Amino acid sequence: MRxxxxxxxxxxxxxxxxxxDADSVRADLDSIAGLGLDHIRVFPLWPLFQPNRTLxxxxxxxxxxxxxxxAAERGLDVNVDGLQGHLSSFDFLPAWTTTWHRRxxxxxxxxxxxxxxxxxxxxxxLADRPNFLGMTLGNEINQFSDGPHPDPDRxxxxxxxxxxxxxxxxxxxxxxxxxxxxxxxxxxxYRDGHPFTPAQAARLGAVTAVHSWVFNGTAQRHGPTGxxxxxxxxxxxxxxxxxxxxxxxxxxxxxxGAPAPHIPEERAAGFTEATVTxxxxxxxLWGVTWWCSHDVARSLADFPELEYGLGLLGNDRTVKxxxxxIAALAEQWRGRRHRPAVRGTALVVDAGEAGxxxxxxxxxxxxxxxxxxxxxAAEGVRPAxxxxxxxxxxAHLASRGITAVLTPDEVGGAAGRRGASAPAGPRPSxxxxxxxxxxx
Length: 440
Hints:
Elements: E1 2-6, H1 22-33, E2 39-42, H2 46-49, H3 58-73, E3 77-83, E4 86-87, E5 90-91, H4 109-126, E6 132-138, H5 157-174, H6 187-190, H7 198-203, E7 208-212, H8 218-222, H9 227-230, H10 232-243, E8 251-256, H11 268-279, E9 285-290, H12 321-333, E10 345-349, H13 368-378, E11 384-387, H14 394-400, E12 404-406
Parallel strand pairs: 1-2, 1-9, 2-3, 3-6, 7-8, 8-9, 10-11, 10-12
Antiparallel strand pairs: 4-5
């Protein structure tokens, strides 16, 4: 079982690539290693690494390798996100994709060629490092393809699939055999018509990545200590398995955090412990990577308020209560095999045709699948999820250890019968926060 953190540098946040300070990075990594964690996820800023379509800055790539080597010295493996893309409410796109050079990020041939070479170059630079886990294509890049982004690059689901396959192949050419994957925010699971789909998330790439943020309507509806809130990450892990073709495909809880005010500061440690404990009760979990390592400095302006306090450590590298909770869990699980019991009862997911999931809002907070699953979980059932088209497939059910199947209408309370009463997709965490604030 892997425990790690998304690395947010204390000096300059991700702008630190402009003034790369190896000593500061090493001090940050020392504080991360001090929590007993074993890996980090790092974020090059795409416009800084590839400011022109045919210029990938050698010095920037060298600094990325230097960071990875510093992590190795501290026993930390490294996953690298390539196309940033979007981080903490800010978009970072190179000038050759915007305004006068505006081209679709997912379909323009020149942009595709530039992205491929960039991802291949980063992967190749790290291919000989034993602590290099692999590439994530980009951070929640699906947010550029649809609303509520203010200026989306519209594509179809088929075009999204083609883009994902092409970019994953570029990573594989750069570093064959490593764990290359892609990651989406929860519109892929919850938003009807979104071009990035559950099937893509659960079938393309080496593992399935899920990002769990309870400001999406979950905490607003269920409160900071509600079952649905504390088990939202577990729900997404199990939801991904409904679409997976491999019944034991690994799932990486790649992002999860305790966003205030939905999780009050005094509840952050309790929420952290509960969220991770419930996630660990899901079979085939690869690991947990918390968002994020260090608080954003208050000297930096214009972040949504909740961004400033998400760290396991303060901006001065002191350990916070949530950090102590993660450290204790990492210590508890060190050297142990992850063998949770199978989840024998499955709830049926009827989101329409599996490839495009046109009715996936049934899975969103307020939807019949989500609310019924939460009701069963509150009763201690430990529910799995299964697609309607597989609910009578004896071989599939047996491969997952499922012995009982329920529809939302059969769940005891009113949740399964009232239908979706909340809009699907992401929600603002407060009136001042943009419609999509990726904490990553």
